[in-house]
Amino acid sequence: MDADPIRQTDDDDIFDFAMALVQNRTIEECYDLLDRITSESINARDSQGYTRLEWATAFSRRDFRSYLITKGATPTGNQFHRNVLFIALQYVNQNWNETLDGFSPETIDFSGANAMNDTALHLALYGAKWGFVTAILDQPESDDVNTVNSSEETPLHLAAKSKCGIRTFDEIVRRTTRDKINAFDAYGYTALHWAAASERSAKKIQSLLDKGADVNAQDKGDGNTALHLVLMKKSITGAEQLLKCDNLDVNVKATRRWTALHQAAAWSNVPADLFKKILQKSCDVNAKTILGRTALHLALRKRSATATDELLSCGYNQKGPVVNVDVGDGHGKTALHYAAQWPDIPPPLFNAILDNTIDLNAKEKTRGLTALHLAIDAQSETAITQLLKHEKVDVNVEDNQKRTATHLMDSWPDMPPDLHLLMNIRLQKLNDTPDHEHSIGQDVSVGGFK
């Protein structure tokens, strides 16, 4: 969030003018833009309440200032110097320990707000001017920390999402009233959501939880909790910090019905201890997302050996295995279908799924593919080998295009010889069966072997 782009403006010409300054364009490059300024618009204000002259002054652009003054620009109102400071705080790129073109933090009146109700504290946080943030907080306490701007943001929202140091963050948290701790901004996030999605999330998360932040609050857009967000960001420390909270509910479903377990399963290299903690707190390991995917489906799809192993090892209850490998997603794909598409799946994981699957020849709904079709398509030697060795796997099942496994293997030019051999052994057994009828109406063999 360092020196962010111009937030918004009602006047496109002022926006373009401000962007020219932010981009450090020369005045010669901006003559077309400057020529559009009229005597009526020379002192116009943008939606933040700033004039062009204030923008030019904040960026120390004497060339633009001189041009504007010759066109009739004047420092209007008592807020001229304040607005210059406000612009500099948010948009001028300078190190935190430098003054802003003559402004000294010790001698500035930081009171007031711009037209979007941003205080100096909001703007210093937006612009990552940490020295000025400290100077503002060092002043006698005021209600600036609890001021809400036009984006419904308090300084706490901005501190949570920025690279704000933890000491400064803790001070802002301390001075934020409890009714603002769980406030949502216009983006649908609380400060805890922003902290979970930011760097240094663990310490910020703990600081907010200590002040009473709702650990299970769901954002207004996707319905994610802070735990969903730290798992998306793959923040180990952030996730561990949240999992220490007694009130944490890992079973909260986001808008697309993802629980924390789904999110952890989709993390390809999720730490085993972290996954176990979430798994142990989960009440339904077979819960489906809006696309019908279980945590096991996602673990296999993202090729997470850790998550797959933990899910398959979580034991049995009175109804059978806790994890149901036969559950199909919205397209009818079971765990076996997903496992078959993992080219280098560890054999023990594949066999665990294979041995517990009821229908080894089930077809997914989109193309009518079996696990064997998918394994050949993915060129997964492990899956093909184990499937061909299993007597219940039917090598003559056709997909929606009337293709059997042998057709697909014929289109694999450099298929390993041992797979050729396995397939031909299966086909020979079928040919040797008296009552067998060839589903493809001809001698069956692979790669020219008869």
Automatic annotation (TrEMBL):
Keywords: ANK repeat, Repeat
Pfam families on file: Ank, Ank_2
InterPro entries: Ankyrin_rpt (IPR002110), Ankyrin_rpt-contain_sf (IPR036770)
GO biological process: RNA processing
UniProt-recorded Gene Ontology molecular function terms: RNA binding; RNA nuclease activity
Entry superkingdom: Eukaryota
ANK repeat windows: 187-220, 331-365, 367-400
PANTHER family linked: 2-5A-DEPENDENT RIBONUCLEASE
Protein's name in the database: Uncharacterized protein
Organism this protein belongs to: Daphnia magna
